[in-house]
Structures are given as C-alpha cells and as structure tokens.
Amino acid sequence: MNQLPLSIRPVSQEDLSALLRLENKCFTTDQLSRRSFRHWIQAENCAFIVAEYGDVIVGYSLIIFFRGTTLARLYSIATDPEYRGKGIARALMEAGEQISKDSGRVFLRLEVSVDNTAGIALYESMGYQPFGIYRHYYENSNDALRMQKCIRTVPPVAENRAIPWIQQTTTFTCGPAALMMAMRGLSKNYQPTQHEELQIWREATTIFMTSGHGGCHPIGLALAATHRNYPVEVWINKETTLFIDGVRGENKKRVLALVHQDFVLQAKKEKIKVRYRDFHHSHLISEFKKGNIPIILISTYRLDGRKAPHWVTMSGYDEDCLYVHDSDPDPDEQSASGLDSQHLPIAHEDFLKMSRFGRNPIRTAVILKKRVS
Fold first, then answer.
1. Are residues 128 and 214 in the same domain?
2. pTM for this model (two decimals)
C-alpha cells in the first residue's frame, strides 16, 4: 500500500477521469455524472478538493456555497474503499471546513444515509448535530439524516418552529408559496394546494412587475390572509405606489397605481393595520418571538445575481442570523428536494441590504398571526 504522505489540493480539469473512476468505485446509486463534475470543477461558488497519495487520487470532497447566505453544504464526499481507515474523510472534512470558514460561512450542513453508521460516527465526532430526517432521499429510498455544524464561533442555532417548506409551482407565485408556508405553520388544519397557490396570486397580484407576470403586493397578500381568517399586519417603509419604478410605459404605471390604490382601500374596509415604517431584523425577531410569522420581500441580487423582488418566509433566528424558507430552489446549485432552500441563514448585516428592493428602495413585510377560529 502506498506509504507516501496524504496531500489535499484544489481540484483541476485533469482530475476528471480519475474522479469518475473513483465515483464508480464508491457508489452504485446517486452518482455524480461527468457533466456534474465538469460543472463543479469550473464553478466558483464551491470548495472542491481532492486527496492524493502521490499521484493517486484516493478521495474528494465537494462543498457548495449559497449566495447571499452564510450557509455551506457538503454536496458529496468519497474515499477509495482500498484506502479507508486512514483518516482521509476526516482530512477532507477538516480542509473543507477551513475553506468554508475562510469564505465567511457560518454553518456547514450535510446529509448522510441513516444506515451509514461509520459516516454518522465520523460527523458526530467532528461536532455535527442532527437536525432532521429527509424521507426517501436517496435513489434506493433510504432516509437521510440531516446534520449541521457551526464552523465559526457563534451561538448555536435556535430551535426552529415547525414551518413547512413549500415549493412554488410557477415562476411568479413566490408570494402565495411564502404565505401558504406561514399559514400552514400557524394552523395544521390549513391545507396548501396548487389551486390555493394560484387563487392567492389572483387575489394579490400587482398585474405587472419588472417583467413577465406580476408579483404580489404586500397588502394583497394581507387581504388573502384575512379572507382565510388569519389576523395580519403589513409593514411598508413608504406610502407611495409600490414597484412602479420597475415597469416601463405609462399604461403599466397607471395600472400599478390603480391596483395599489384599490388594495389600500380594501385594507381600510377590512381594518387591516398597515404600518408605514422602516424596520430591521430585530423587529422581525420580536414578532417571531410572539408566535407570529413574517413573510419578507427581498431582492434576489445577492442570491442569484438578478434584481428581482422575491417573497420568503421567516423560519427562525439566532444572535447572528435570520433563517428563511425560499420557495424557489436553484436547480443548478440545490437539490431537487429543496433541502438547501430551507432555513437559509442570512447574517443580520446582510439582511438590511437584501431586504431592500428597487431604485427607490422598498422594504416591506407581512406579519401573519394565529388564525381566528
């Protein structure tokens, strides 16, 4: 057996064939394809490293960084079966944690099969804590244990309220999906459906937005919640027509103004409290402590480089971060299950920048309260 010292280095294009051989040797299901390896070798938002004895690649680790958050996720790790028991996986994990820490990440998450006792033992010995189960996660239908570690010196993550994650089914229904998550989180009797998603959008849409179909107005979402017997409060940092700077053409601007005015009048009739105020993370945390669930408008610029308005649902907090459920996972970076879109940690200092949208920045949130029986 090779007695040369183990070395760990960044991946290179020349490693592709060796990585494919290693992947086939280690896994019979859930394998990364040649296309996936090529993508991640070239990607910048990841830590992709290999372990070598001499010129023989005996392991690799791939950690993905999620834009706009302090979260990193172990996407895949493999060790050649002939070299197991030599501390290769631990060395790869330690190196990956350091790269993640250096990039400003606070938490590293992973999934491991519930029957992988050796893997679970390794992760537990390194300080990873279980925080959930994902049923039938793998191709062979095995369940995955979800684990997390704080890789920087910050207080532990607060216990998250049981708020379900719901994926939007269209490109323009983030608002309804965010609202349905909050309503379900407050009432287990509430049943979200795609029909409900589209109905809420019809009730709350601005008709026009930056492009394509219109998004949802905060007061429109509040009215939809009220119609479903949820008390609600709206926070907006200005009294002008929302989103009007994001459309071109006088007709679109006129329609947006009419829709805005109509929502304001309806809110007065329904006695919905609309508070024209600026706010920051501490105000949202205060509401969450009371048992309320805020849904928050953000700009996606720090998440995906696009300047689009997007609704997310607050799912928890700690001294350093707000946690949100994002209904729109990125298929290029995140698992189809949406695991990486749940409880996304956003540092408090980043939240103030992310929660402002438009040239004349809008900051708004809808505070959902316990359902009226």
1. no
2. 0.69
